[in-house]
Structures are given as C-alpha cells and as structure tokens.
Amino acid sequence: MYTGRYGVVQDLEQAQFWADRAISGLEKKARDGSASAAKTLGRIYRDGEFRPPDRQKSESWFIRSASLGDAGAMHDLAQMLLADEPSEKGGKGVLKWLSLAAKAEHGGALTTLARLHLKNRFGLDPKASVDLLKRGVAVGHPGAMEELGRLYAEGKFVEQDRAKALELASKGADRGHQGSSRLLKALEDVASADSSENASRSLNQDTSGKG
To answer: How far is CA 27 from CA 19, 94, 186, in A?
Structure first.
C-alpha cells in the first residue's frame, strides 16, 4: 500500500514498518501451528520480500509448514531442493516432499514429479508420468495439460491422439500458460500444413484424371 502502487504516494519507511509488523504476526502464527503462515514466511525469505533472501530461514519455514501438512509448502520445498541439482542418490528429499504433495493432489507437485519421471531422474520410470499428468490435469494444472498434450501429440506412452493433444493445449493456453500456448500453436501449424498437403494432393488427383 505504501510502495507507490494504486495511486498511493511511495513511502518505503512506512512500507517496511507495516511489513515488519506483518512478518512478526506471521511468525507468531507459525509458531502457534499455522502451516499457512509458515509457508508464507518461507516464500518471503526465498523471494527476498522486505527481507534479504535467506535460504536457511526459507527452508526452515517450509519444513515447518510441510511437516504440518501444507502441500504447497511441500512442493516449494522440493523445488528449492531440486534447484540444487542433487545427485541421483541425493534426490531422496525431493522425492519425499513431492510424493507427499502429490498424494494430496497438488497440481504443481504432480506435474513436477511427472517431469522427473519423463526425464528418468533419480531412476524414475517415464511411463509412470502418464497417470501423474492425468491427475494434474484433473485438478486443473496447466503445466500438466501441456506435458500430457505433448505425449498425445507424439504418441509417447499413450496412443497418439492429436485431437486430444489440441484439446489439452487449448485448455492450458486458456489459463495463460505459455508452454501450452506454444504447444497449441505448433499443433495448429502442423494441422494447417497437413490440411494444405491433403488439399494439394486432392487437387493433383482431380487434374490427373482429366485428359
């Protein structure tokens, strides 16, 4: 409110004052057992909002929130650990938190876990990605729509179905997902090229029969 947005004059001191109060309130709630407050603190320290970025504090708050059952914190924590590019043996923490979040049907976790399967990371089976992506689509995650759409377009681990691929890409694009939008354009370009080729072939057949 005091950062110059919404027509309010910028006042960094006031903004910091109210941010400090808000963060103190969040810390109290988190220590009293609020998983949501702990997750918010994890994101504040991860992103450096009104506080210098602090990986250790961020991870600590995410762990507290995840331990209290917050699937979003489980996902964020796994992403933080994954960013460290752990070795095949060092991926246990990533898989632990992603699997727990996926069991709670967290769309981001389902999609991230599916992508790890697709890349055969940590010895995961690529074929198992399909079920995870279908679950991700069921809860409305656009990233899952893109990935599953690609599999249908390529006929990889599923029977090829370009109509289904277009449907999934379109749904993801409608949610503003850039990857889905790119996939949709690529599929539409292929469909257009195929249509032009078929039309040309049909025309050639018509003209060749005349004489």
So the answer is: 12, 25, 47
**Token digits of residue 73:** 């914190």
Secondary structure letter of residue 49 according to DSSP:
S
Return the percentage of the chain with pLDDT > 70, whole number. Answer: 87
pLDDT per residue over 50-89, tens digit each? 889 999 999 999 999 999 999 999 999 999 999 998 888 7
Q: What is the DSSP string of 17-47?
A: HHHHHHHHHHHHHHHTT-HHHHHHHHHHHHH
Half-sphere exposure of 119 (CA within 13 A, CB side): 9
| 94, part of any domain | no
Structure tokens at 90: 């060092």
Can you give the CATH number for the domain in which 188 is found? Answer: 1.25.40.10
Report how many domains make up the chain: 2
Residue 167: which domain range? 105-206
**So what's the pLDDT on residue 198?**
61
